[in-house]
Specification:
The structure is a homodimer. By secondary structure, chain A is an alpha/beta fold. Chain A has 14 helices and eleven strands. In chain A, the strands form two sheets. The first copy, chain A, has a six-stranded mixed β-sheet with strand order 7-6-8-5-9-11. A five-stranded mixed β-sheet of chain A has the order 2-1-3-10-4, with helices on both faces. Chains A and B meet through α2, α5, α11, α12 and α13 of A and α2, α5, α11, α12 and α13 of B.
Chain lengths: ~350, ~350
Amino acid sequence: MKRRHFLQAAGLGLATTALAKPAIAQSNPAINWRLTMSAPKSLDSVYGACEVFGKRVAEITDNQFQIQVFAAGEIVPALAVLDAVQAGTVEMGNTSAYYYWGKDPALAFGSGVPFGLNTRQMESWLRHGGGNELLQDVFASFNCCGIPMGNTGCQMGGWFRKEINKVDDLRGLKFRIGGFAGKIISKLGVVPQQIAAGDIYPSLEKGTIDAVEWIGPYDDEKLGFQKIARYYYYPAWWEGSSNLHTLVNLAKWNGLPKPYQAALLAAARDAGHWMTGKYDAGNPPALKRLLAGGTQLRPFSQEIMEASYRAANEVCAETSADNPRFKKIYDSMVAFRGDSYLWWQVAEMSFDSFQVRMRART
Amino acid sequence: MKRRHFLQAAGLGLATTALAKPAIAQSNPAINWRLTMSAPKSLDSVYGACEVFGKRVAEITDNQFQIQVFAAGEIVPALAVLDAVQAGTVEMGNTSAYYYWGKDPALAFGSGVPFGLNTRQMESWLRHGGGNELLQDVFASFNCCGIPMGNTGCQMGGWFRKEINKVDDLRGLKFRIGGFAGKIISKLGVVPQQIAAGDIYPSLEKGTIDAVEWIGPYDDEKLGFQKIARYYYYPAWWEGSSNLHTLVNLAKWNGLPKPYQAALLAAARDAGHWMTGKYDAGNPPALKRLLAGGTQLRPFSQEIMEASYRAANEVCAETSADNPRFKKIYDSMVAFRGDSYLWWQVAEMSFDSFQVRMRART
């Protein structure tokens, strides 16, 4: 009942509270939106960012614009967020666009593709490199607009019960991996598995799967993989960064007063900043605890990295041949990446490398 | 006249527009603030961020809260921004806190100290590592609060007319360098020079100074240093990242309605994101142009880096002994840095290193 009321208010240009008020109040109507997430509450960096987002929007609007946050499965299944926002079942959702690459592979660029951009490159490409405009084209075809809202940073390559040294060691490996990367890694003989958060641990424990990638030390530790897999590989070449989006149903977006649209954009940036910072603060102590508990860090070998790189380039070339929108975004991302790493290796990487060397001496 | 009117309005609790309006409008009074900058307009990433900030605040508040942006020197000298905000001459300022380290060395942490944090570490330390709270203590003693608003990323070590290979080559070198780093580099025999943006080029051209550090390729190219100095060194070990602050006079801040405070915080994060992204998009093509024009890139030698590192540690230890507030912030930053680089070298750096290697092959 309440829900229907709010939707009608939105449909009517949000005019319900404006009649008896002066001009200034017309831009400040009381509305209440629902935001449904792909993440469970236990992913407190991602879930927390949505709470920060809703709280900031409420503060800015003097509590006139309320956003109610629902974790995965509370009102919509984890991987049906795009569908729910597209249909207008909810006004907003928070998700990773690559979950829906089966609908259109171009959606993968919303999260990031294998051997894509690092976190700052992704943020810069989205805002200043044309990335965000290109993606809006894709989202619009799903009746949404997409507001970038935070990045996990570079992820870990996951938990393996046995060491993986050569490409041969990957053949037949049942590996829980999300998004577009599954298509790529299957070229190396891996059997990719899509498994929801709550089912991953028992699957690995029982041996239904051989290995699992999730996010990074902060989140992985909470799921307890270190108890049943000894080797923790890096990096997740498929997620050099991983961007989240807050999706808004296009008609709902267009019905918002301009000040509320601006509040959403600014609050999303604020919440995204909170999220990336929370990962960057939470991953180091979690990694220390994991190492103290016996976890063995292993880099993917150069052979595996290079074979994966070739597979990624092949899949992206094949997909580009089929899908002009994918090609257009891929070409933009690749050009940005090439220039950016020319610069990145100069100041940023030399500073970080020196800092790491000096740390090792103390 | 206009100015006096606005200050009075602020002093009266901003109640001028509220009398004839319903409750909802009281949180949305019309006000007009001035923001004065340390940066000239030619630094369009920093100046542009202040414009983005003001525009976003206006959009969010339906044009009720207007921020007028003044470049360095238009109403307040470039390096007197803190003083002007402290005195309430202007409501807001945008500056680098390290310019004022002579007033209190603890202010240096607002921008970043030599061999401090990289950009993401700085953002995370400020928001989740206690950095921002520690800094508010410092700003409050100058009658301000400080809102972080963007980072330039790791800077370049500057332009030298001769190659610098050994610490001996630094002795007697007249080097334009900003902030707390000048004190540190003087331990290596450098004669640090504080010179405002507009005077640097002629000083280097005439030989009044021997070398200059400014920011990075995007900004440096505009000042034209490549025309008079051949060697471009990296990294700026004194600015592994460089954070900007928007300062707000404390009484003015406390007089703002809560929704306006929230709008400022969210809009500052939005503008800071815009700024860092603009540097990350602008530096790569600028570097390409500089290299095509004959600029020679040179890394600082390990000998120079290590001598500088020791000098930085000495100066920070000496300053900590004199200044408990400096010590408290330094200890917090050092602890955060140590943990963070343990993690950073795993996923982030291995991903970036691989990407750089593959780029070199294509």
